[in-house]
Amino acid sequence: MISPFFKIILRMLHNYQIYIKGLVQGVGFRPFIYKMASEMELTGSVYNTSDGIYILIQSSETNKNTFIDKIITNKPAIAEIEEISVKETNRIIPENNKFSIVTSDFGNNSITRISPDIAICNDCLNDVKKQVHRLHYPFINCTHCGPRFSIIKSLPYDRDSTTMNSFKMCPICQTEYNDTKDRRFHAQPIACNTCGPVYRMKNSQGIYTEDYNTILSSIKECIIKGGIVTLKGIGGYNLICNATNPNAIKRLRKIKMRPQKPFAVMFYDKSQAEKYVFINNDELQLLTSWRRPIVLLRERQKICSNGLNDGYRTLGVMLPYMLIHHDLLESKEIEAIVITSANSDGEPIITQNNEARCKFEQTTDLVIEYNRDIYNREDDSVTHVISGKSRIIRRSRGYVPEPIRSDLHVEGIFAVGADLNNAFAIGKNKDIILSQYIGNMQEKENQIFFETSMFHFFQIFRFSPKQIICDSHPEYFSTAIATKYSIQHSVPLLHVQHHHAHAAAVMAEYNLNEDVLAVCLDGTGYGDDGCSWGGEIIKCNYTSYNRLTHIEYMPLPGGNAVSKEPWRMVISYLHDKSGIRTLYPDDFIERIGKKKINIIEMMMDRNVLSPLSSSAGRLFDTVSSLMGICDINTYQSEAAIKLEQLADIECKEFYPINRSNPLDFKNLVKQIAKDYQLGVPISVLSSRFHNTLVYSLAHTIHYFSKKTNINKIILSGGVFQNKLLSNLLIKQLTAKKLHVFFPSKIPCNDGSIAIGQIAIAAALKKNK
């Protein structure tokens, strides 16, 4: 018989159902809940579903509130909570005074968030030195770290749905996997020396070895001697060499067919990196985060005399994210390694063992593979810090497939993005899920990569397209893919203007469902008038846009050829059709030659192959080539990037702006040409150019802000990857009391176009 006292206690207890949505699976969330509930002596259970985690507890209201507060405050570092809902429930909770983890329920078609791949954690770095069955085991992982997206094939996220399905757990791993108190409870990639994946290396006799210490010693010896190693990473194969050896780097460039573009460098830790780069607190937080991206940092001194990042004052830096990286660099025998994707420049990173052997066995000194498949290929992500916040340049490993949470219903919308820096996106409920970086869609291999990844996303996220969105450019390869799919599957197709999509992507990140002013600066985007746009200020919301003003149109002599040959734009800006003799700098004439210059002038005079463009990217190219910095782009935006790199950041000088038409920069270019001829240092001229451009933009934006009574300003487009430009403009606009929205979770370049395309389509559908 229950005593009166306990009857009172029972009346005070309630049964609660707590639903948590977000990144809560594959990150140790259920063991965390179990431990905390047990410590609070709560009765109940926790279980996974397709769309999140459910917790049932029997508790007083006070304890329930304390429990929820602790969940929010003490959650695992990698976990992200998007939503918590609590309600009383009539569901029966067993009266055993215990809390338990129960069988998952994946009965519906909803999905939960999938974790990106996570850098090895400190606990695993300690375990590998202490746990007998994992001593020096290179693929050690737990619920707090290890491969996730790169190995998953379908939901629910369990071992059978990943490329670990062929590795049967040994009894020790199985015990850890089943132990709710163990850090490896339900860690799907759990493995050890007995039952997990292994590295393999072919020796000089053609015999394979799987001994990790032998392989590690061979890699170290090879790198120290100046060799190049092909090493299988998380999202694909990498090529690595000694970052202090210019001959090794020269050879690496030949293998990759990458003559100029800088390489990223991996250091063992912060103290090692700080010998060569400056790192502020925001950059350190990004550099040491579990995402482990490449972070662009200002150089303190050169780590290599030549060949690594010539013409740059910044260096791409990353820290180890796999055990093998730690083991290679821990002894400090190797100061740092160059680490780059194993591919020819512009092609997708290689993931298959056979392909890696075929392509690199003869050209590199060692090929190191392992016997777990990579299902979803990923490059290393590239980031930097602008205005005190992390900004993404290339979004891939460590970020994908994290969604952008929208206030719009986006279910069933598939967006193919743009052609450069391509990434596609799918809509699930209110989540926009952006793919990993695909690359330039003009490359046939990247088109195959696109289609393979597209079907992987459809499968993993249980997605079926109900509408397809593409760019309005009629000649984009992505547009052709969208058109083909639309016809084959009878799915409606919507074309979206490029810069409207740029603006809408940032609106989606910040959930700005209202009129904004968007400043879109990039290389090119198909305009409504048939011209190439790229220096735009538009008033827009999700469903409409109005072009308020733009950089003055200039001819593109040779059309698309100008993106490869910036010197053509110098002639475009300086040539006077009225017959007045054009004054080109002497060394420009010497470099390009009078014959070429005359041909381009004739093309423009006769309006032959000289379409008009308002491109900000081409303006940067003009100034860069004018001063002899870069006449030929060997990689995307080379001229513009090198122009920024040479600027004197302490210089505050600027040229007078044209107040009647602040975005007409012909006189600015002529003034720079004159001062360059007079011998003014390039560093000063680059700073004057940046400062003048910023003042011109700020003046124009402020004018239209007052005219439209809109004070929310969006900055988007690849030109805003320019750290100097963006920092200066954000500072000026903020000083004018304007609210600036600059992308942080997504790239400002074309890598985010698909997000804007989905947001626009969802809003148009809602308004029908």
UniProtKB/TrEMBL annotation:
It is an enzyme of class 6 (ligase). Gene3D superfamilies: 3.30.110.120, 3.30.420.360, 3.30.420.40, 3.90.870.50. Keywords: Hydrolase, Ligase, Metal-binding, Transferase, Zinc, Zinc-finger. Residues 213-398 form the YrdC-like domain. Pfam families: Acylphosphatase, HypF_C, HypF_C_2, Sua5_yciO_yrdC, zf-HYPF. GO terms for molecular function: acylphosphatase activity; carboxyl- or carbamoyltransferase activity; double-stranded RNA binding; ligase activity; zinc ion binding. The keyword Transferase applies. The active site is at R30, N48. Belongs to the carbamoyltransferase HypF family. This is Carbamoyltransferase. It comes from Coprobacter secundus subsp. similis. The lineage of its organism: Bacteria, Pseudomonadati, Bacteroidota, Bacteroidia, Bacteroidales. The gene is hypF.
